[in-house]
Specification:
Elements (H helix, E strand, L loop, with lengths): L4 E4 L9 H15 L9 H5 L3 H8 L6 H13 L10 H10 L3 E6 L3 H8 L1 H4 L4 E4 L7 H11 L6 E5 L2 H9 L3 E5 L6 H4 L5 E3 L3 H5 L7
Parallel strand pairs: 1-2, 1-4, 2-3, 4-5, 5-6
Helix pairs in contact: 1-4
Length: 210
């Protein structure tokens, strides 16, 4: 099936920000008094849900907005956060096939635009950036409404189980990427499509034209 609307997550899906995330997590854990993630814990955490990760970190929910604010500030000053190889050509191919592109991320808009570059960023017709205490589900719903797209005609592409849960709850197909934060076996619980390589995303629309 070809979808007319593709919504992308940013961190771990388009941007290879995991090395920066690990550095920032240690800094912010010390600053805000929650548990550091040690290198030996990374693989087990990739197989954990977002709720399980938060429980393990002993980070109170009320501190999340503060930590997210500081994370975005750190990323604003960071250098060397790249896009995954092949992201820009893939986005260009989807645009050529007439797929409308959306971007939904808790990261700050200026961070996203700086990492992506103005040309790639401009490909997105619908953009939702910034932290929301309500999660991604209502933001997916709002983006579909603004775009005038039915849930069945959209796909949300991301790298965390919470992405899949939010998409499925809104009747949107979830496409799980295999190069991000979440382990494939966890994402598979919610995914209608799995992408091992970046070029696999464009292949979903192979043969379709605008």
């Amino acid at each position: 099936m070809s979808y007319s609307f593709a919504i992308f997550d940013f961190d771990g899906t388009l941007a290879d920000s995991f090395p920066f995330f690990m550095h920032a997590q240690r800094v912010l854990a010390d600053r805000h008094g929650f548990s550091r993630v040690e290198p030996t814990e990374v693989e087990s955490l990739r197989r954990s849900s977002v709720a399980q990760i938060l429980a393990r970190s002993r980070l109170p929910a009320w501190k999340l907005p503060l930590v997210a604010r500081d994370y975005r500030a750190m990323m604003r000053d960071a250098t060397g956060v790249p896009l995954f190889d092949g992201i820009e050509p893939m986005l260009g191919e989807l645009a050529e096939r007439g797929v409308v592109l959306g971007l939904l991320t808790s990261n700050a808009r200026d961070n996203v635009e700086r990492v992506m570059g103005s040309d790639a960023f401009a490909r997105f017709a619908h953009i939702e950036c910034g932290m929301s205490i309500l999660g991604k589900r209502p933001r997916i719903r709002a983006m579909l409404r603004r775009a005038g797209v039915a849930p069945a005609d959209a796909i949300y592409i991301g790298d965390q189980d919470s992405d899949g849960e939010a998409a499925n709850a809104e009747g949107v197909a979830f496409g799980a990427v295999g190069w991000g934060y979440g382990a494939p076996e966890l994402l598979r619980l919610h995914a209608k499509h799995e992408f091992v390589h970046v070029q696999d995303i464009a292949a979903l629309w192979a043969g379709s034209t605008s």
